[in-house]
Amino acid sequence: MSNLSNLTCFWNKEPQVPFFPNLVSLFIIHCHCLKSLFSLSQAKNLDKLKILRLCNCEKVEEVISSDKGEKESTIFPKMKCLVLKDLPKLVNFCQEGVCFNWPNLQTVRVNNIPSMKTFLRDDLNTPLLKSVHITFAKKLWLGNLNKTISYMHNNPGV
Q1: Residues 90, 35: Cα–Cα separation, whole Å
Q2: 3-state secondary structure (DSSP) of residue 12
Q3: Are strands 132-133 and 107-111 parallel, antiparallel or unpaired?
Q4: Distance of CA 17 to the CA centre of its chain
Q5: Strand pairing partners for 52?
Q6: What secondary structure letter does DSSP report for 120?
Q7: Rg from Cα positions in the chain
Q8: Upper half-sphere CA count for residue 56 (Cβ side, 13 Å)
């Protein structure tokens, strides 16, 4: 999805049946009215998603808006690559206290996400992730994704 300047939500109703059950890649670029992509219950239906790229969406504050009281642990179990680029208002991947388990995540690329102080408020398990790509050639890793994102936020010249 690209250049959808009036798009305000990806899916506006809670699904009664899984939507896009076979979606493997999702690229969202230049969608300037979008504030979040999915609710937590919607994201649970995207269990085949391997690549998520979110770029140049100036109003996005979070990728997943959580449903109050829900503490899901496995979202996007097949996710291998996550790209977050040019998202000036992105604060967290998911702002509510939710634990994530991403057993297959291997690549994270971030660039120009100045408002993101930590990736998640709660625990994040990414056993295969060994670095965060900041530029094409520059990588950083401080043992986990939350610490790495926090360090990048506190040291903008990295």
Answers
A1: 9
A2: coil
A3: parallel
A4: 23
A5: 26, 82
A6: B
A7: 15
A8: 9
Question: Tokens 């408002």, residue?
Answer: 115
- 24-51 pLDDT, tens digit per residue, is 999 989 888 888 888 777 787 888 999 9
- Enter the tokens of residue 25: 């890649």
Q: Name all contacts of 152-157 with Cβ < 8 Å and 24+ positions apart.
A: 152/110, 153/114, 153/116, 153/117, 153/118, 156/114
Cα–Cα distance for residue pair 152/114, rounded to 1 Å: 9
Dig out the tokens for 71 from the structure. Answer: 């503490």
**Is the CB of residue 77 less than 8 Å from the CB of residue 50?**
no
User: What are the structure tokens assigned to 69, written together?
Assistant: 């009281």
State the pTM of this model. Answer: 0.86
Q: What is the mean pLDDT of the chain?
A: 83
Burial of 28 (0-12, 13-18, 19+ CB in 10 A): buried
Strand 81-85 versus strand 51-55 pairing type: parallel
How many helices (H) and strands (E) are present in the chain, helices listed first? 2, 11
**CB of 39 within 8 A of CB of 12?**
no
Residue type, 156: P
Structure letter (DSSP) for residue 87? -
